[in-house]
Design brief:
Blueprint lengths: L1 E2 L5 E2 L12 E5 L3 H13 L3 E5 L3 H4 L8 E5 L1 E2 L2 E2 H10 L8 E5 L4 H8 L3 E4 L4 H15 L1
Parallel strand pairs: 3-4, 3-5, 5-8, 8-9
Antiparallel strand pairs: 1-2, 6-7
Length: 140
C-alpha cells in the first residue's frame, strides 16, 4: 500500500488477497440431478465439478476438491465403494465425503465406509447447504 500522486491510498491489484473458491466434486448418474446441484453450488460461489461416472475419481483425478458429494447408487458402481477409495487415499482421506441416498438404510453403510455425513433424499436445499458448509468448516 502507498499513497498515489493525489494522496489517495493505493493498493496494487496483485497485492489484494483473493478469495479462493471452494471446490466441490459431485458424482451422480442422473444428469438432471447433476444440473440442479451445479446451479445450487455455483450460486453459493463453489467451483463445481459434476461427474456422471466415478471413473475419474478412481483414476485419481479431482484430488484437489475441498469436499465430495457422492450418490450412493451409481450405474455400475457404488458411492460407498468410492467413499472407501477416497478415505484410503493419502491425498483425500482428510477431505469430507458426503453420501446422498433415497435409501435410509444407506446411512449405516455410509458411516462404515468413513463418510463424514449422510443426506437422505428428498432433502431441502437449506439442509444440503448446511451439511456441506458444516463439513467444510470442520475440515479447515
Amino acid at each position: 500500500m502507498f499513497l498515489n500522486k493525489l494522496g489517495l491510498l493505493f493498493v496494487p491489484l496483485n497485492k489484494i488477497p483473493t478469495v479462493m473458491k471452494r471446490k466441490i466434486v459431485i458424482t451422480d448418474d442422473d444428469p438432471g440431478v447433476l444440473e440442479i446441484f451445479k446451479i445450487i453450488f455455483e450460486k453459493e460461489g463453489f467451483d463445481t465439478v459434476t461427474l456422471s461416472s466415478p471413473k475419474p475419481l478412481l483414476q485419481n483425478q479431482y484430488l484437489d476438491a475441498d469436499i465430495y458429494l457422492l450418490d450412493k447408487q451409481l450405474s455400475g458402481s457404488d458411492g460407498i465403494e468410492i467413499c472407501k477409495f477416497l478415505k484410503q487415499n493419502e491425498l483425500t482421506r482428510h477431505k469430507p465425503v458426503l453420501i446422498i441416498s433415497a435409501n435410509p438404510n444407506a446411512r449405516a453403510l455410509s458411516e462404515e465406509a468413513g463418510a463424514d455425513d449422510f443426506i437422505e433424499k428428498p432433502f431441502l436445499k437449506k439442509e444440503l447447504l448446511a451439511k456441506v458448509f458444516k463439513n467444510i468448516q470442520q475440515c479447515v
